[in-house]
Amino acid sequence: MIERLTVIGVGLIGGSLARALRDARAVREVTGFGRSLSNLELAAELGVIDRVAVSLADAVRDANVVVLATPVGAMPEMLNGIGSVLPETTVVTDVGSTKESVMAAAQSALGEKYSRFVAGHPIAGTEQSGVAAAVADLFSQRRVILTPDVDTDVEAVSKVVAMWQATGAHVMSMSAAEHDRVLAASSHLPHVLAYALVDMLVRRDDHRAIFDCVGGGFRDFTRIASSDPVMWRDICLANRQAIVAMLNQFHDNLSDTIEAIERGDGDFLLDTFTRAKHARDKIFHSLPEA
Ligand code: NAP
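Above: inputs. Below: predicted complex with NAP.
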């Protein structure tokens, strides 16, 4: 049981975590802090948080656990704001989609208290944002990746593991570098492609005719282009190297496909599409729909 939880950034993920912990009776009091008062008031009205903090210092002063759930670009400012006022025993964690950048910011802002910072990332979400979209079962049966450092306090890690397990999530650990490399492929690359595809089409003169003729395939492929642009700008800037490496590899593969279509190479296309179909069928046979 967490006595006092503070969520900084009470949106889809922070709000869903608070809701899940409340439902599981794994938290006694939730304090929220963020950017706009109107969002925090809505969070209180919806019963997601009990109390709106008036400052970062007010938000963390009594907290047993602090969860950073803003876009990753805002996390350095939040960490710098709490560094000097954080109680010695408070555990801090985050839900950011990139890990090396957030951990570097935490290390520089928290000093000795960095040993109680446990970086994390729930592999769950939707293209929606904001506290109104927060739901208690968002993390149920989903994975949460923790990327503790070698010196991270073992009790702090246990506390964060227990917090996520209370939401119904499965917790796993890996290094921050591995996380950022793997997520660049599994999540960041598809988001960049979806945004680029829709943006390319909408800038064509005949985009109205194109969008009049879209079907389920286009909807499936581009759903994630409805995600929050600020969040995805921040992820791209924070995980630049790994994302560029994946985009370059994709670019090379796409060039091969373009050449195969140009030369009418049906064998190449059939091999590629068959391999991809089997891989996708296998992946989603064992995973729940996102
Ligand atoms: P969200 O619904 O937009 O919520 C973000 C919250 O952060 C909002 O309440 C916002 O406040 C607040 N915020 C934004 N900028 C701020 C700032 N400069 N200072 C203080 N508060 C600020 O976003 P989300 O989808 O929950 O994502 C939150 C984090 O989770 C991100 O780091 C993201 O990478 C990570 N994540 C997202 C997903 C996903 O699928 N969405 C999945 C896993 C992890 P206002 O409402 O006042 O603007």
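The chain has a mean pLDDT of 96.
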